[in-house]
Amino acid sequence: MKHRLLSFLIMLVCTVTFVSAQNRHFDVDDFKKKKAEYIIKEVGLTDAEAKAFIPLSNELLDKRFEINHNIRSKNREIREKQTRTDADYTHMIESSFDLREKELQLEKEYYQKFRKVLSPEKIYKFQRAESKFMKETFNKNGQKGKPGRK
Amino acid sequence: MLENKNKKNPFTVPENYFQNFNAEIMNNLPEKEVKKSKTMPLWKTVSRWVAVAAAVTGMAFVGMHYMDNNTQQPGTTADYSGYASEDSSTLENDYYLFLEEDATRMAYRDAIFNE
Q: What is the ipTM of this complex?
């Protein structure tokens, strides 16, 4: 009886862990908030600079995500197909070029907007700080481990 | 001592003592109790585990259904109005993957330029 109960409890714990792992949520707002705090501290933004710059930075991130998302959704549909045609493969290859081109255009466009708000030195520091934050958040410092996901 | 050389061995054994030795020992042993093992039909053993597996699976489905219905966390005000055809958990997952790829790209770039 005790042995059966223990086996049942172990299975229950494994099930709950499995289910919760499948449905972990990523809080985008929380991520943006933490990133903003980090950038303000690392770059040394004043209140006025932060008020003008952070919304622009988030806007750029959202627009980059939108481009990525559209292309990713289409590529996911193709990957889920049972049989893929040459046109499908061509689409996946060429969409990665399109993505890089559109992202670059967007970054250049927002760089012009950033220049109106921050000095070149602070823009450069922002790029370094953003890279460091992303690597730390997603454990890309060469360390193995699960990224910061809720 | 030599005078006693031709004397007969005073010790004797009964006739056929050693020939019958094994048989006598076996006959004098108590009877072995043949324990009858309890036979349980296979279906009874399997059905218990099937019941446990069914209960666990049922709980897993209920749990997953419950979590699907409670995806909107308090404080999450991300605007997904432009993605009406997709649910927020898929979008959150996509956003996460997008950011993770970005982080990988940045780490690769920094490694290349040795920063």
A: 0.74
Which band of pLDDT confidence, cut at 50, 70 and 90, is reported for residue A95?
very high
Domain count, chain B: 1
- Asked whether residue B97 is assigned to any structural domain, the reply reads yes
| Predicted structure pTM score | 0.59
**What are B59-107's pLDDT values in tens digits?**
877 777 666 555 444 344 445 555 655 677 788 888 998 999 899 988 8
Q: Which of A105-119, B12-26, B56-70 has the highest mean pLDDT?
A: A105-119
Check CB contact under 8 Å for A138 and B76. no
Q: Which positions in chain A touch B75 (Cβ < 8 Å)?
A: 27, 29-30
Domain membership of residue B59 (yes or no) is no
A contact test, residue of B47, B67, B102, B109 with most A CBs within 10 A:
B102
Q: Is residue B32 assigned to a domain?
A: no
Could you tell me if residue B106 is inside a domain? yes
Q: Does A28 touch chain B (CB under 8 A)?
A: yes
Domain extent for B95 = 88-115
Query: How distant, in Å, are the alpha carbons of A138, B19, B25, B26, B99 from that of B22?
Result: 81, 7, 5, 6, 86
Interface test with chain A among B56, B90, B99, B113, by most A beta carbons within 10 Å:
B99
Distances (CA, A) of A83 to A3, A74, A86, A87, A90: 49, 15, 10, 11, 14
User: How many other C-beta atoms lie within 10 A of the C-beta of residue A74?
Assistant: 14
**Domain boundaries, given as residue ranges, for chain A:** 2-8+27-143
List, in sequence order, every beta strand (DSSP E) within A23-139.
Answer: none
Which positions in chain B touch A66 (Cβ < 8 Å)? Answer: 82
